[in-house]
Amino acid sequence: MAESTSAQSTSLSKALRVLLALEEASDGKGVSDIARELDLPKSAVHRLLVTFQAHGFVQQESRRRHYRLGPTLARLGLRAAEQYVPRQVARPYLEALAQEMGETVFLGVLAPHGVLIVDKVEHGHVLRVAPDLGTLLPLGQTALGRLLLAFCPPAEQEALLASSPTGPHSPGLPARLRAIAQQGYAVATGEWLPDLSCVAAPIRNGQDQVIAALAVSVPQSRMPSPQRHDPFAGGGTALPYPTLIPPVMNAAERISAALP
User: Fold this and answer.
1) CA gap 115, 192 in Å, rounded
2) What's the chain's average pLDDT?
3) HEC string of the chain?
4) Distance (Å, rounded) from C-alpha 116 to C-alpha 96?
């Protein structure tokens, strides 16, 4: 019985690898491409894709015969997003914050290899720079990633960074994470995408655990200059972006207060 279970798990793992190989392939992939990428027999890849196609998990282009993700996965993904409790609670606060700030606002959660964007509200600006729903953001180069890392235990931080597809992190990252955990927000300017700046704040559940992060993205052309000192506090350190950070933190706190 144990051998049978193991064989089934191996077969399922192989099938899931084939499906995941199509995740970033907006133009689709052919059987040979997938087989070569995963080092699997073409016949096995073809059988799996035919089965997936029969159930709507993939679809095949008529012209190039490439495969891409299908409508069943789209339906399941949308249903999973609808059932994700923080997203349900956060949605009206995202809409209010986008209206208040006039910028794109989004919600991210920690995933094994990055930060997954699970919701987004866009404003009416012609110039908008923000990740799409379902995008997996790098951990060390984004405000969302660094913020969620900052509230992980050190061992989990190292494990997540070690498995990151973007490679080794900068030597100064641990100190930056400690500062983020202390101040309660993260800022990134042009590190992941040259024209994208972002401010992020943590969302906590009723047990005070950070389970998601709220962020606003701003094109560099609309990003204000950072303030270094507060003229009303005897020259003390000020919030670097006083028009951006407080609204994001306040919205994150309101979402947190509404979560079970």
Assistant:
1) 13
2) 82
3) CHHHHHHHHHHHHHHHHHHHCCCCCCCCECHHHHHHHHCCCHHHHHHHHHHHHHCCCEEECCCCCCEEECHHHHHHHHHHHHHCHHHHHHHHHHHHHHHHHCCEEEEEEEECCEEEEEEEECCCCCCCCCCCCCCEECCCCCHHHHHHHHCCCHHHHHHHHHCCCCCCCCCCHHHHHHHHHHHCCEEEECCCCCCEEEEEEEEECCCCCEEEEEEEEEEHHHCCCCCCECCCCCCCECCCCCCCHHHHHHHHHHHHHHCC
4) 22
Residue 171's pLDDT is what? 72
Q: How far apart are CA 206 and CA 241, in angstroms?
A: 29
Q: What is the DSSP letter of 195?
A: T
pLDDT digits (tens, 9 = 90+) for 60-119: 887 788 999 988 888 887 777 666 667 888 999 999 999 998 889 999 998 877 898 989
The two tokens of residue 142 are 């984004």
Residue 3 above 50 pLDDT?
Answer: no
The least confident of 128-142, 201-215, 225-239 is 225-239
- Kindly list the distances between the CA atom of residue 34 and the CA atoms of 20, 22, 56, 157, 192, in Å, as whole numbers in the listed order: 10, 8, 18, 32, 28
**What pLDDT was estimated at residue 240?**
64
Q: What architecture is the 2-75 domain classified under in CATH?
A: Orthogonal Bundle (1.10)
Tell me if the pTM is above 0.70.
no
Domain regions of the chain by residue span: 2-75, 84-258
The CA-CA-CA angle for residues 34, 36, 38, to 5°, reads 65
Q: Domain 84-258 carries which CATH code?
A: 3.30.450.40
